Amino acid sequence: MPANRMSRFEVFIGTWNTNGEVLETEAGPAGTLYATDTYRWLPGRHFIVHDVDARFDNQPTRSMEVMGFDAIKQQHFARSFDDQGTTEVFVLALDGRRWSIEGKTVRFHGSFDARKNRLGGLWELKARKAGWQPWIQLELVRT
């Protein structure tokens, strides 16, 4: 096990262009998503800051999350904050090229391409009536 449990997350560092298809759910209509995702190390390289500048159907939304390792729970996590006042805690898993994010109301499963310059996957939204629903099919491309 590496001394710094975040070292394998180096794959994210940099800027990514994100395009997505928002699917219709009970929470809202179908649409498009365009975003710039920027990942950077905090000093000491124990935490990563992830800034998101997105547009859902031309409506701007911005968020920031901090990714790290919880030594007590022995798991990677992220805590997100957005411009609507919403915050959520996620459990993160990076297994080879597979990437997952698990939250109480949303989750993501995807994978990197062989060169780790593209990340594609599906966000799901927890619906009141139907359990987990497909929400956003997206692809991030390293700039």
UniProtKB/TrEMBL annotation:
Superkingdom assignment: Bacteria
Pfam families assigned to the protein according to its UniProt record, in alphabetical order: DUF1579
Identification of the protein by name: DUF1579 family protein
